[in-house]
Fold:
Amino acid sequence: MGLGNFVFLVIGLFHLWGWNVARGGTNSVARALIRVIESNGGTVLNRSHVDRVLVENGRAVGALLANGDEIRAERAVVCGAGHWQLVDHLVPRDTWPDDPDSQAFVRGVDRFRIDDAALFTTHLALREPPQWIGSEHNPDVNRTVAVYWGTDDTPTLKRQMWDVTEHVRPSVPGGLACTHSVADPSINPSGGHSTFTWEPTCYEVDDDPKSWDEICEEVGQELLREWRRYAPNLDDGNVVAAVHYSPLDLERRTISMKGGSMMLGDCSPDQMGPLRPVPGWAHHRTPIESLYVSAASCHPFAGVNGAPGRNAAEVIVGDLGVARWWPEYTL
Ligand SMILES: Cc1cc2nc3c(=O)[nH]c(=O)nc-3n(C[C@H](O)[C@H](O)[C@H](O)COP(=O)(O)OP(=O)(O)OC[C@H]3O[C@@H](n4cnc5c(N)ncnc54)[C@H](O)[C@@H]3O)c2cc1C
Structure:
């Protein structure tokens, strides 16, 4: 279930619809959104950690930043960091309303499960792009952005997924390699190429995620050795630098991804659609008046798709009685 199945689905979709890449790298998407906000009179504060949502008389009225600054909100506060951040950190337990529905919301977020598989990633700076052994049969492979390697047939792929859903490191190494620089040289302005592989894995090694700090480098080197069997030119002469991130590193760098959960909550059927994140609370509102959530922990699910944000915007403008300024979505 969850991410395991999602990966199979994604691989199928790549073949059907191809692979969308933001020119210059995915942070171009964030930069474009910042331009939209600023050109409409908004302000974006980078590197500003939010310590608390300010709640007065049961209503969200702003945010308290880690540097002590208070940002006041006249109409609404929208949390884009997911439900775990909200319930675990941003709103203290005794601030949530005491009624049964509100308490069910908080308990539901506590029970909202992390992804059943996490990702280990190895990033490489390269002089030349990977030359895949598969290119002997199809030269286009070397011009392909996304190549799943290491699991050569369906039973092996299933085995890899089975291992991680059982919370052990995959017995069959391999994963999805993405070499965006073959399609978009602007991602490496100083020339050369870059690539990364993510391997599905488990968050807890020997029941302790901290074990990753001891084995991260070794696991990364192992992964690179295996990857080299499929792309032999990933040798010392070609690899300029290698960096490895464990699921624990991911959680530290992106604190919304609790337990290395890149979907901000497992995508199993019992945590999807109207059940995401908690039955009865899929509408982006929270038990606190004028406090909303817009993130991958909401319906439909994770990915750089913008859907939770758009859906939340629909609800918020409706509640505030503001005219929608974007076209209505029709199927
Ligand atoms: C290795 C990897 C590969 C992936 N590949 C793909 C892919 O190819 N395609 C795809 O569509 N998706 C991919 N994803 C998934 C995608 O990145 C996530 O699903 C998506 O980023 C979720 O978006 P989000 O805005 O809901 O949450 P996030 O991206 O987690 O954004 C939330 C932000 O809030 C910040 N934050 C949290 N708490 C606070 C606080 N208290 N104060 C201030 N800021 C805070 C976090 O630092 C973070 O920047 C990948 C994820 C990983 C880890």
About this structure: Residues 49-50, 80-81, 85, 119, 121, 198, 250, 254-257, 262-264, 295-296, 302-304 surround flavin-adenine dinucleotide (CB under 6 Å). The chain has a mean pLDDT of 92.
